[in-house]
Amino acid sequence: MSAHTLGPWHIVKVDKSEWQINSDVSDWCVVSVTPIIGGHDYLSKEDKANARLIAAAPNLLNEGKKLIETLKNMAIDASYFLAFELAIVKAGGKS
CA 21 → CA 8, 24, 68, 71, distances in Å? Predict the structure, then answer.
C-alpha cells in the first residue's frame, strides 16, 4: 500500500487564482495551488506548470518504478540509473 494519496491525479481549475490537484480515486483535494507571493490574484505560468508537475507525480513515480525493474532485468549497469532510483526512494519518504 502507498503512503501517498492514490493516483492518478487531475487538475480542477477552481478559479483564476486556485487550481486543485485531486485524486481520480476519491476526487479529494491532494493539494491546492494558489499565488502566495507576488500579491496578485491569478496563477502565474510557473504556478500552473508546478500544478501540472504535481498532478503527474503518481504516474511519473509508477512508470519510473517499472523502468527501474525493466533495466534491472536487462542486467544493465546500475550506475546508469542509480540517481533515478534514489529519486524514487526519496519520493517514497525514505532518504
Answer: 10, 10, 27, 31
Residue 47: CB atoms within 10 A of its CB come to 20
Q: What element of type H or E holds 90?
A: helix 82-91
Amino acid identity for residue 46 in this structure: E
Burial class for 33, CB neighbours closer than 10 Å (0-12, 13-18, 19+): buried
pLDDT in tens, 24-58: 998 889 999 988 766 677 888 888 888 999 999 99
- Asked whether the beta carbons of 2 and 14 are under 8 A apart, the reply is no
Instruction: Quote the cell numbers at residue 77.
Output: 549497469
Model's pTM, two decimal places?
Answer: 0.75
